[in-house]
Amino acid sequence: MIRLFVPNDLSAGAGVVPTVDQSRYLTSVMRLSVGAELLLFNGRDGEWRATLVEATKRGCLLKAEEQTRPMTLGPDLDLIVAMVKRGRVETIVEKAAELGARRVRLTITRRTNVDFVKLGRLDAIAMEAAEQTGRLDVPEVADPEKLDKILDAWDPARRLVFCDEGGDARPMIEALSGTTGPAAILIGPEGGFAPEERERLRGLAFVTPVSLGPRILRADTAAISAMTLWQAAAGDWR
Amino acid sequence: MIRLFVPNDLSAGAGVVPTVDQSRYLTSVMRLSVGAELLLFNGRDGEWRATLVEATKRGCLLKAEEQTRPMTLGPDLDLIVAMVKRGRVETIVEKAAELGARRVRLTITRRTNVDFVKLGRLDAIAMEAAEQTGRLDVPEVADPEKLDKILDAWDPARRLVFCDEGGDARPMIEALSGTTGPAAILIGPEGGFAPEERERLRGLAFVTPVSLGPRILRADTAAISAMTLWQAAAGDWR
């Protein structure tokens, strides 16, 4: 069944006016007619079965009928990723939604050579991926920040899993086995971290350096593999 | 350092004429001049340091100097993936190269609704990804075959890891823990496997059904996550 994210509060009988794009998708692409059923979620009220009660040229009106799933959030995982080429950042955001990250934080490191990103487009990708993957929230995509600033403000209760290409870190699945609590995964830019960044990271008590195997991975591959292994070792794939 | 895949035999002093595209890449894109060093591999003779000995408008001549790494192959892993949209198949082939699959086999299932794929383009993607990821071979991309035909001819010594969306399979990392020997991962099309396909797969002695978590994954995400978990549990990420 079609799932749509909407910002509205959801309760029995609540009317929901979808955006122009969503209305067009429902009636012109998916060809729903009045009476058709779909699912709605808003990140707060779980998932609701809804019906299409009105479809005009100006848009649709939906009505929430009954809750199909109570609100739950996935495990508390952030993904922090150095800005890379647009196509790869878009892939990363899509996959973060599918692999259950709560938040994607873009970061600027010494060797980051991409300085522009269309946050609106990334939000749209996160929303569409959340609709398709079945989760009840949409991951937030946070504005780019400098890595040093992120580390300065770090809450030490959150483990930072540092994907370290340096070579001597333990395999990720082994390093994370039995760990619990909130976490974040840090993925560097295509050129890797600068030596001084690596040194700072490895000196921080909340950082767990991990290895992602013997081959060189692109940033999007590293992000997807790391989120997968975290879910398998410490998240909701157990 | 630049790495190039070449079909030629590699030995000390061997001359190698790269393709027109490779020559253009070396001299026009990377701006190498005579005397510059690069690395060559051919899938048989390991990796060799080579020098650019001639660069004319018509092309380059390279000379293999000395072996830098002896020939090794990664673990014996195939990826069998139902044909999906072009962009996603291309992502899957690129990631199979990075994640150490030896071979990508395209398959046609009951619900596969894509019937065309440019194999030449997929080979080029596999080659470029192999060059960048540092492996010593290029994964083969095999012609599409029907799933039933693949299963009819299966060598039972190879474990078939079936990514089953049916819900009751064990988590992949747990189901594969301690397994050894050759393996293949099977990923279905966007619409999933048909009930009769799933039934056949679950009845075969060489099949291990596994689960990839509670969310619905696109085919490319499932392929990347499954290769990652296989490498972590049974491959060279341990």
UniProtKB/TrEMBL annotation, chains A, B:
At the top level of its lineage, which domain of life is listed? Bacteria
List where the protein spans the membrane: none
Query: GO cellular component annotations, sorted alphabetically?
Result: cytoplasm
Sorted alphabetically, the keyword list is: Cytoplasm, Methyltransferase, rRNA processing, S-adenosyl-L-methionine, Transferase
Top class in the EC scheme: transferase
- Methyltransferase among keywords: yes
**A GO molecular-function term, please?**
rRNA (uridine-N3-)-methyltransferase activity
Q: What compartments host this protein? A: Cytoplasm
What residue stretches are annotated with the Ribosomal RNA small subunit methyltransferase E PUA-like domain? 21-63
Which EC number applies?
2.1.1.193
Q: Name one Pfam family in it.
A: PUA_4
Q: What is its main location?
A: cytoplasm
- Domain called Ribosomal RNA small subunit methyltransferase E methyltransferase: residue spans: 76-231
Q: Which CDD domains match?
A: RsmE-like (cd18084)
- Family (UniProt): Belongs to the RNA methyltransferase RsmE family.
The record's function comment reads: Specifically methylates the N3 position of the uracil ring of uridine 1498 (m3U1498) in 16S rRNA. Acts on the fully assembled 30S ribosomal subunit.
The record's listing under NCBIfam families reads: PRK11713.3-5, RsmE family RNA methyltransferase
Q: What is this protein called?
A: Ribosomal RNA small subunit methyltransferase E
